[in-house]
Amino acid sequence: MNTRPYAVYQRLTAGGTSDDTDDVVPRSDANLWALAAAIAPELYPAGQLDPIEVEDLRAAYDDGRRPRRIDLYRLATLISDRGVNAYVDGAGGGGAVIRVGEQHITLTGERDHAVLAGPGTFHSRYTAYGDRDELCIGPPDDDLTHRPDDPTIRPAPHRFQTLAELADLTAALAHAEADRHTRIAAYLDVLVRTGWEAFWAVLIGALPDIDFTLSGPAEAEHGVTQQRLLHYLRQVLNDTGMRIGVTPPEQQACAVCGAVQAQTCSTPTCHGRVAITTR
After folding, report:
1. Buried b (16+ CB within 10 A) or exposed e, 194-226
2. Could you read off the pLDDT of 52-108 as tens digits, one per residue?
């Protein structure tokens, strides 16, 4: 019995484990064949790839590299290294998810983090893995309400992305979502000073990434949306009141038309009222 292929497989598995530790892109078929040829040239002639043999070499390498597996704890650490809070949390039924960024109140009034990454499964208390084919990184589902865009990130099917690359994308998305929540909080606060009609006009014009188009019976739909936003506003003001302040009177501007306090407002619906801004 020729034991040389098994020695090759062991070397490739060890190489895969090393590549997994170093978080590098999996090696190509040609590279695996070249490694096998260096170990057993009589079995793997240089430059003469055999598709069936390559499948066995790939299987041995993947036993160490495990390219489909996402180490959630490792990914959370890499995200934290980029200055964004991230930790692995339970998702019920043994499931695991990474919660990323600061907590916010979503448009449905629920409290959640700006970005979630998962799903995954706990294998022990401090070990959780996800499947690359199932991984989604994005805002909570109830925070996608009235948004025509879906910023959810999924690993590219045509190109392997390392954990470091996924951490970069996740951190960037968390920053973008935090900025979006800050803008929403600031413009929702206009409601306190301008009344609903002016607030509605400001909201539609200032937040183009949210679809506020009313469908169905206008009165009923308007009422549901208004109640949802009012609830959201109340939660935001309770949670972020210390971070929202009033600009000096001489710097205040009309929330609708932009006129400063000393000027005459050009928008009839806002009556010269001004909005507070975030610090």
Report:
1. beeebbbbbbeeebeebeeeeeeeeeeeeeebe
2. 999 999 999 999 999 999 999 999 999 999 999 999 999 888 899 999 998 876 656
Q: Which residues contact 234 (CB under 8 A, 6 or more apart)?
A: none
| 57: Cβ contacts below 8 Å, ≥ 6 apart | 8, 9, 12, 29, 32, 33, 36
pTM of the model: 0.67
**Low-confidence spans in the chain with pLDDT less than 70:** 1-4, 105-109, 142-149, 185, 187-200, 202-204, 206-279
The answer to whether the beta carbons of residues 72 and 117 sit under 8 Å apart is yes
pLDDT digits (tens, 9 = 90+) for 251-268: 445 544 555 443 444 443
Burial of residue 3 (CB within 10 Å: 0-12, 13-18, 19+) is: exposed
Question: Around 212, how many Cα atoms within 13 Å sit in the side-chain half-sphere?
Answer: 19
Q: Look at residue 265 in the predicted model and tell me its pLDDT.
A: 42
Q: How far is CA 247 from CA 190, 244, 253, 279, in A?
A: 13, 10, 9, 8
Query: Phi-psi bin for 44: left (phi > 0), alpha (psi -120 to 50), beta?
Result: beta
